[in-house]
C-alpha cells in the first residue's frame, strides 16, 4: 500500500545523512491531508534533534507538482453537516498545518524545497518555510484561495506583505500563476535549477563534507546550489511581475471600492493580465475583503502572530463564509459556478466582514497559543 508521504535518509561521504520527505499522492497533485501533516511534523521534529541529520529535503512525487494545496474535502463535508458552527475538522487541519509551516520556518537546520511543477496554497506554505527554495523552468506558483472563498493563508499574511510594492495584494486578488522568474523576484524562491538537475543535485549532495555546524551547512548548501545554477541548462527567463511593477502598483492603489473599479474597468491586451482580471472578478466578494484586511496588516505582525490571526479567519470561512460553496463548485459538483453569499463586493455588509475577522478564541485558549 502506498504511503501518502514517504520518509527516507540518504547517506553522504561525510558520514552525515540527509532526511528526505516525499509527498506521495501524485494523482491528487500531492495535496496535503491531515495525516500527512501529522506524519511530517513528527518526523521533522525527530530529525531536528538527530545529530546525524545535516539537513532536510522536501519533494513531491511525479513531475506535475510539488504540492497543489490542501485536501479540504473532509473540512467541506464536516462544515456542510454543521452549518454556522466551527468544526473540529477545520480547527484540527488548519492549526496543525500552520504549526508544520511554522516549524519549517524555525527549523534551524537547512530545509531544501524542490519547488518543481505546481506549488499552490498549502504547498506554498511548505515552500515558504524552506531556507533553500529551488525553482525550475516548470514551476507554477500561485495562491488561488479567492476562487474557493478563502484568502492566502499558510503564512501569506507574513510573506505577501513583504513583497515589492503592491505585488502581494495583486497575487491574492488575482491568483496569478507565477513563473520561476516571478517567484524569484518576489522572494518565494531563492535558487533556480533545471528540472532534470534533481538527480545530479542529490549526487552532488552526497559528496559535500557536512558537519555539526548548522551555519556552515547552510553556507555549503547555498554554494552548491549557486554553482549548479551557473551550469543549469534551462533559463529562468524574465519576470512579468518585475516588468509591470509600476502598473500593478497603480492597479492595486486605493481602498477596496477603488481597486475593484480599476480591475473591472481595466482594458488591456495582455493575456496574463486579462486572466488575472477575470479570476479576481469571479472570486468570492467576501474573500476580497479578507485579502484587503490581510494587506492592511503590513509588516507589523510577527510570523507567529500572522498564523494565529489566520487560524481564526480560516475556521470562520468554513463556518460563515464562502468556503463551502467554493469547494462545492470546484471539487464536489465541479460546475465551476459558485453562488457566493454576496453577488458583488458592493453588497458585502460590514457585519459579515466583522464576523469573519473576529477570532473564536482569546489569547488564553487559542490553539496556537504556544507558537
Task: Describe the 3D structure.
The protein has 371 residues and is an alpha/beta fold. The protein has a single domain, classed as Alpha-Beta Complex (2-enoyl-CoA Hydratase, Chain A, domain 1). 46% of the residues lie in helices and 11% in strands. It is built from 17 helices and nine strands. The protein has helices at 34-49, 73-81, 88-105, 122-128, 156-159, 167-174, 180-185, 198-205, 214-230, 240-243, 245-251, 256-264, 271-282, 285-296, 303-319, 323-332, 350-357, and strands at residues 5-11, 17-23, 53-60, 65-67, 111-115, 118-120, 132-135, 140-142, 191-192. It has a six-stranded mixed sheet with strand order 1-2-3-5-7-9, sandwiched between helices. Strands 4-6-8 form a three-stranded parallel sheet. Strand 2 (17-23), helix 1 (34-49) and strand 3 form a beta-alpha-beta unit. Helix 1 (34-49) packs parallel to helix 3 (88-105) and helix 2 packs antiparallel against helix 3 (88-105). The longest helix is centred in the N-terminal third of the chain and has 18 residues, at 88-105. It is globular and about 65 Å long. The two termini are 35 Å apart.
Descriptive labels:
6-stranded mixed β-sheet, 2-enoyl-CoA Hydratase, Chain A, domain 1, 11% strand, 17 helices, 3-stranded parallel β-sheet, alpha/beta, 371 residues
Topology:
Elements: E1 5-11, E2 17-23, H1 34-49, E3 53-60, E4 65-67, H2 73-81, H3 88-105, E5 111-115, E6 118-120, H4 122-128, E7 132-135, E8 140-142, H5 156-159, H6 167-174, H7 180-185, E9 191-192, H8 198-205, H9 214-230, H10 240-243, H11 245-251, H12 256-264, H13 271-282, H14 285-296, H15 303-319, H16 323-332, H17 350-357
Parallel strand pairs: 2-3, 3-5, 4-6, 5-7, 6-8, 7-9
Antiparallel strand pairs: 1-2
Amino acid at each position: 500500500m502506498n504511503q501518502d508521504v514517504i520518509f527516507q535518509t540518504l547517506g553522504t561521504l561525510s558520514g552525515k545523512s540527509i532526511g528526505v520527505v516525499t509527498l506521495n499522492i501524485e494523482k491528487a497533485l500531492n495535496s496535503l491531508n491531515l495525516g500527512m501533516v501529522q506524519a511530517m511534523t513528527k518526523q521533522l521534529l525527530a530529525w531536528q534533534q538527530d545529530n546525524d541529520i545535516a539537513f532536510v529535503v522536501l519533494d513531491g512525487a511525479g513531475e506535475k507538482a510539488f504540492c497543489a494545496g490542501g485536501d479540504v474535502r473532509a473540512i467541506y463535508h464536516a462544515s456542510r453537516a454543521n452549518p454556522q458552527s466551527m468544526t473540529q475538522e477545520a480547527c484540527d487541519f488548519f492549526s496543525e498545518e500552520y504549526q508544520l509551516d511554522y516549524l519549517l520556518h524555525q527549523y534551524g537546520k537547512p530545509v531544501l524545497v524542490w519547488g518543481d511543477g505546481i506549488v499552490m496554497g498549502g504547498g506554498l506554505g511548505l515552500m515558504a518555510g524552506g531556507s533553500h527554495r529551488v525553482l525550475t523552468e516548470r514551476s507554477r506558483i500561485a495562491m488561488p484561495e479567492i476562487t474557493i472563498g478563502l484568502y492566502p493563508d499558510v503564512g501569506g499574511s507574513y510573506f505577501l506583505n513583504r513583497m515589492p510594492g503592491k505585488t502581494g495584494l495583486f497575487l491574492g486578488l488575482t491568483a496569478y500563476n507565477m513563473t520561476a522568474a516571478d517567484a524569484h523576484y518576489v522572494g518565494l524562491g531563492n535558487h533556480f535549477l533545471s528540472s532534470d538537475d534533481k538527480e545530479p543535485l542529490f549526487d552532488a549532495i552526497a559528496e559535500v563534507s557536512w558537519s555539526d555546524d548548522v551555519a556552515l551547512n547552510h553556507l555549503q548548501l547555498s554554494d552548491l546550489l549557486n554553482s549548479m545554477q551557473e551550469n543549469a541548462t534551462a533559463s529562468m527567463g524574465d519576470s512579468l511581475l518585475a516588468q509591470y511593477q509600476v502598473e500593478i502598483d497603480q492597479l492595486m492603489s486605493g481602498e477596496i471600492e477603488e481597486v475593484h473599479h480599476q480591475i473591472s474597468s481595466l482594458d488591456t491586451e495582455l493575456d496574463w493580465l486579462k486572466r488575472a482580471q477575470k479570476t479576481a472578478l469571479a472570486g468570492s466578494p467576501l474573500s476580497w475583503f479578507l485579502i484587503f484586511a490581510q494587506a492592511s496588516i503590513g509588516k507589523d505582525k510577527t510570523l507567529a502572530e500572522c498564523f494565529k490571526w489566520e487560524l481564526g479567519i480560516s475556521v470562520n470561512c468554513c463556518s460563515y463564509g464562502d468556503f463551502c460553496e467554493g469547494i462545492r463548485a470546484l471539487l464536489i459538483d465541479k460546475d465551476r459556478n459558485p453562488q457566493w453569499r454576496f453577488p458583488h463586493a458592493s453588497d458585502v455588509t460590514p457585519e459579515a466582514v466583522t464576523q469573519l475577522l473576529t477570532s473564536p478564541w482569546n489569547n488564553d485558549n487559542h490553539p496556537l497559543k504556544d507558537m
